[in-house]
Amino acid sequence: MSFVSAGVIENEWIPMPDGRKLAARLWLPCSERAAPAIFEYLPYRKRDGTAARDETTHRVFAEAGYACVRVDIAGTGDSEGQFDDEYSEQELSDGETVLGWIAAQPWCDGNVGMIGISWGGFNGLQLAYRRPPALKAVISMGSTVDRYSDDGHFMGGCLLSGNIDWATQLCAYLTRPADPQLRKDWREDWIRRLETVPFSAVDWMRHPTRDAFWKHGSVCEDWSRIEAPVLAITGWADPYVNAPPALAENLRVPCKAMIGPWEHKYPHLSLLDPADFHSEALRWFDRWLKGNQNGAEDLPAYRAYIQEHFNASKEYGPRVGRWVAEQSWPSLHVNDRVLFLASDGLKDNATIGTVAISSPAHIGRAGGFYCPGMRIDNDLTEDQAADDALSACFDTLPLIEPIELLGRPKLKFAFSVDRPVAQIVARLCDVSPEGVSQRITYRPLNLTHFASHESPEALVPGRTYKAEIELNECAHRVRTGHVLRLALSTSYWPLVWPAPENAVVTLHLKNCALHLPVRTVTEEIPPLNPGPPRDYPLLQAQQLRPATGTSKRHALEDGTIVLDTFDDFGETINPLHGMIVGSDVRMHCSIQPNDPASARYLSEWHFTFERDDWQVAIKTEQSMWCDTKHFYLHRKVRATEGLGEAEVFAREWSETVPRGLL
């Protein structure tokens, strides 16, 4: 199948009111008439960072009659200006300007849709929240409606290691220079980027509660503000599973949710089970941007791939399950089933007594990375059996009939502690007769947040409290003969940064219950699941170094548990402009089982760029460690130029952040 649009404009400058210009790449359709437009807005560099992925989407959309516009956020890629923070007022205000500019172009009929995964999925919703006139529809993938509760910084009031991991990656991304082919001032601008790159991990950690910083950009603050129809998509291996059903439940405009067996990638590019994303996207945009009466508004409110046990392998490959659909959400087909925690498992009736939980700090080794799909290898969850053995587990008897879950399980519990700061992590697992434990869903809770994420309070040892954990969205069928397990631990490293001290959390069983969203349907409606991916174009880049990934877990002589990973993203030549780009990342996580304050993270990114006689390289390092009172962060950035690697910039930063109630 050939893909030929009327023209690709490699770079177009979009003027901002203050004189800055943002860089855009355009794909224009074969048409003499103005067309609706699709806008994607990212800091990941249209020239090289997302070029291969863009080829698989925007060229297809242009062939279908859309003008596609891919824009670099200010201070990133080839765009002018200075980057300040993710989803900042500058970013969103600039986005409104871009939407107005697109709608006013002669090739656009005034109707604009936004599309994106992750960052682009976030700001698509956030711009819809601001109601710019030109924005008529949104497709948001891998996104969140609540920046505090459901992003890579905090979860349940606990600090995620994803905060430092993502900050390290973002720092490396932001230090990359503009392309000299497009910016004569590239070197001056590059030095300015290096000098002003934000210390994002510190900036984010200084907001440990759900304050105004996180409420900005959280569309759940006022659902009614979104007036553009929204198609919300994600995958079960993606961390952003809570947004699609929340949007389907709360938006007042047409909204459809779909969650498939995918990682943090566009569905057609998934390494788990690729699907026809293009047809889903075009149906949505054809309805709301072109006005085609194709029934998009009549799609089921929620389409989900209900997974089953698949041996909990960390290897990429198809998942076992089936597609189902719910015409409305919440659904009358999903009802609350309550199981009570007892000293000998999960029961149908409440019991009395207590269970004490105190886990070694290294539990969580099978938990995978926060955001699978962003690395090359070893980022999926594995068999939870070893972690279960170090947890307090509450099991059902082997099921005599299957249970199908769709929604967010809730754990309601009463507890007391022996420390003023403690955490608990709940995992729901499907355990096969052979003992293989597959994680269905999970969620941690900083117990000082038992009443509020805005106003946490230190715990009084010995006092009894009540709390609730709403686990992450799931869709899972537990087969006959399998066991449903609730595993509770006081640590989950390296996914969750541990509490400062080993704590004993005592459950008071009389008030401990697991609420399951059990789905029972006598007659299914057609699931309208996406089929296999259609043909799509590929960027014919020349590979100079293949991508590889390795991971190693080991224990040191003093008992420290270490995880070392290396992801080499390879080196390629872009055939459109000849730029050669290479990158790799190393990560080190370590902890002593008997000392949660020994947790340590280190990451090192390396980027190289060259074309003809132009060569630059950037090396960024970030590390984070702690004691019981403070977090310590250190960062290095070094940039070189030319074959001789002459140093053009080198700087180190150190910051100390009080732990407070983390």
TrEMBL record:
Keywords: Hydrolase. The keyword Hydrolase applies. The keyword Lipid biosynthesis does not apply. Coiled coil: none annotated. It holds the Pfam family Peptidase_S15. Residues 282-515 form the Xaa-Pro dipeptidyl-peptidase C-terminal domain. GO terms for molecular function: dipeptidyl-peptidase activity. InterPro entries: AB_hydrolase_fold, CocE/Ser_esterase, Galactose-bd-like_sf, Xaa-Pro-like_dom, Xaa-Pro_dipept_C, Xaa-Pro_dipeptidyl-ppase/CocE. It comes from the Bacteria. Gene3D superfamilies: alpha-amino acid ester hydrolase ( Helical cap domain), alpha/beta hydrolase, Galactose-binding domain-like. This is Glutaryl 7-ACA acylase-like protein.
